[in-house]
Amino acid sequence: MSDEEDKGLQHQDVHPCEIATSEKLVSRTIAAVKCFKNPFNIPDDGKLCNLSSGAPVSEVAKDVLTAETVGRLAKEDFIENRPMKKDGFFDPIKRPNLKTMAHLHKSVKLSTSQSKVVEYKLQGNIAFHLLVKSQAQID
User: Fold this and answer.
1) Which superkingdom (predicted)?
2) Closest Cα partner for 128 from 25, 21, 29?
3) In the chain, N or C: fewer CB atoms in 10 Å?
């Protein structure tokens, strides 16, 4: 067989340029993952942190950290008051309006060139999207 026939039988992924491109993409992925904060190594200074960004979340921290206590108090209030009163047992339970991590997803209203107003809602998995975009860019 000649060299030209051998080139046709070789898989494209084993070419030196493809190997170099793949190694570059793998090193970019490793660098991107190393930049993320390890959620198990964050110092315990009383701040609640978002896992995807590592940023402290002060707006919802109080509600998230006290949600269990608020729920227990609501349960105890129900147990103490509802069975004793014979006429309000099936009334709806008041829901505590506690903020969760989902409230951190900011929404922005943008106007398009056709004068339409579009609401853009920030996604929680932005770190994953950045990782995917870093993989898609080939120098």
Assistant:
1) Eukaryota
2) 29
3) C
Distance CA 60, CA 77 (A): 24
pTM of the complete model: 0.45
Phi, psi of 101 (to 5 degrees): -65, -20
Give the C-alpha separation, 13 to 25, whole Å: 14
Residue 125 C-beta-side C-alpha neighbours within 13 Å = 5
If residue 118 lies in a helix (H) or strand (E), which one and from where to where? strand 117-121
At residue 110, φ and ψ (nearest 5 deg) are -120, 145
* Residue-wise pLDDT tens digits, 93-122: 888 888 877 776 666 677 777 888 877 666
Burial environment of residue 99 by CB neighbours within 10 A (0 to 12, 13 to 18, 19 or more): middle
88 Cβ neighbours under 8 A, 6+ residues apart = 81, 82
DSSP 49: B
Q: How many domains does the chain have?
A: 1
Q: How many CB atoms lie within 10 A of CB 52?
A: 19
Domain that holds residue 98: 3-136
Collapsed DSSP state (helix, strand, coil) of residue 136: helix
